[in-house]
Amino acid sequence: MAERVATRGPAEPAARVDDGATTRDARGEWAPRVLQQGQPFVWPPQPKKLLRFLLGFPGFLWPFGAAFYYGLAALTWRFLQPGAPDLTTFTELRAGWILPMYARNVALLLVLAGVWHVLLYWRRSQDTRFKYNKRWPSTRNKAFLFNSQTWDNMLWSIASGATVWTLYEVLLLWAYGRGLLPFADLRANPVWHVAFFAVLPFWHDLHFYVVHRISHWKPLYKAAHYLHHRNTNVGPWSGLSMHPIEHLLYFTRWIILLVVPSHPIHMLYLMQRPAIGPALGHAGFDQLVLKKDTDKRISIDNYFHYLHHRHFECNYGASSIPFDRWFGSFHDGTPESYARMRRKRKLPPEEAPANGR
Ligand SMILES: [Zn+2]
Ligand SMILES: [Zn+2]
Fold it and tell me: Ligand 1 centroid to 34 CA: how many Å?
């Protein structure tokens, strides 16, 4: 995860803030910073930065991290899951509980991914301030269905993404109902319930890295992952815009539930987070301006994954575990990183623009 940018208060002159207005290169690209080693694997420990990583925006734990998705899963199970908490409901595959689940998931996606799109791309609430790429999504590009990047991305996200997401949820509830999955009752095992939740964010990132690396294996890239990578200039709806083959792989975080005792709330967490999280992870903006008059802002940093979309063969991982550093694919946004990446890919040296691209 990138180093967080401290939100500056109104006392600091706005002119000193690098928001990309004057620091873009000729291609309209803005590099907000040189990426540092991500928390929490920094040694010696940096308590302040670690706290910011865990609890500052977007926050590994809070507010948009694990705690948000845990809350969403718990609320879904309590209020939006037909048949819950009686697991015997799910022993038979019936439209009565399956169709409302599908409608629920499409609605969750429309609301939680849509809110970022409406704010930043439809209303353009802060124009291109803190936007990594000054271009807006393509509206005349034949690479996309209807020549429109946004409509194309929405279609793949909903028609394929929400369908595979729901399909797995249905099968997993059916498996809980039939006693095919090791089950941990919430009341009988509260300690295990919480302990497993502490592990899941790391499992989430480990799974993301492994599946993403596999997706870059040439045959699989050509068959499926290329579709996600048409988005070199990302937006919130690019996050879940993938080929159905990739969705089938991407949503398999549940495989841990085959061996580890769990509750359906754990399952919902493992399904909802990769469905909804990518909208923010592909927002394309480094900071969200909350109040224009005081210039109050929060970090919604997604620069690390943005560089992956710009350069493909780097930054495959997610926030918590520095796989890319360990395996030599880390790109910090500098010209040196860019040159190293080209050497590794046996590409001829190229004069990189000032900000490393
Ligand atoms: Zn992506
Ligand atoms: Zn990729």
Answer: 20
Inform me whether the pLDDT recorded for 355 exceeds 80: no
Compute the distance from residue 77 Cα to the ligand 2 centre, in Å: 32
d(CA 108, CA 100): 12
**Interatomic CA distance for residues 288 and 115, integer angstroms:** 13
Structure tokens that stand for 44 in this block: 């010696």
284 CA distance to ligand 1 middle (Å): 11
Give the helix, strand, coil percentages of the chain, each rounded to 5: 50, 5, 45
Q: Across all residues in the chain, what is the average pLDDT?
A: 91
Residue in this structure with the two tokens 């000032």, named with its chain if needed:
354
Domain segments of the chain: what residues? 14-344
Residues 6 or more apart whose Cβ sits within 8 Å of residue 248: 164
Count of other CB atoms within 10 angstroms of residue 27? 12
Residue showing tokens 């990132």: 205
Closest CA to 339 of 325, 326, 323, 356: 356
Distance 188 CA to ligand 1 centre (A): 39
What spacing in Å lies between the alpha carbon of 64 and ligand 2's midpoint?
23
Q: Is the peptide bond prior to 40 cis by the omega test (within 30 degrees of 0)?
A: yes
pTM here is 0.90
